[in-house]
Design a protein that fits this description.
By secondary structure, the protein is of the alpha/beta class. It is 29% helix and 17% strand. Strand 3, helix 3 and strand 4 form a beta-alpha-beta unit.
Length: 196
Amino acid sequence: TGRRLEVTFVDPDTVAEENVGRQNFCSADVGRAKAEVISERYNRAYGWDSTAHTGRFGDWARACVRYRHQTGLIVGSVDTGSARREIAEWVNGSYEQWLWLDTGNHRLSGQVLLGNLRRKLEPQDRVEGVRIVKGLPLPSIQHPELLEDEPVRADQVLGRATRLRRDGWSMSLEGGSARVLGRAIAALPILPRSLV
């Protein structure tokens, strides 16, 4: 198609010991920036020229205002309301050709949500005579509770993966969410110009 795909991995975290195995990092990755490790891995595996941003999404978004009026896909795999609020702020200020694919998991469940509309579905969003819509509400519209932060507990000084193991969360949920996420991206009819 002659269109260039730009991929940026955004994550302010570094790989911790508890991420090894659970998030497909290895012991050699411990202490390194997650975004850099993932970017390097995809570049080697697929011949990409992706980049890494090791700050918060909001920092990347303020530096990349030029993308707001283009077509793109934001894949969010975050576990805090504050991180989702940064994504929502970006998408709400962008052209509706930006898709937001949000994944997340809870103790025994997970979700994969896709949307681009900054409002609930309305009759004009439906294609008459068929079961097709012209867009879907953003994940933050479908489930506004995703933007809320859970209260901080004293035991949250432990790493997330350590808490999940201790509390008996399903260890296969993150992998399952990742597989659903990969299938959802592969099924998109038009690959967007930018992938964050």
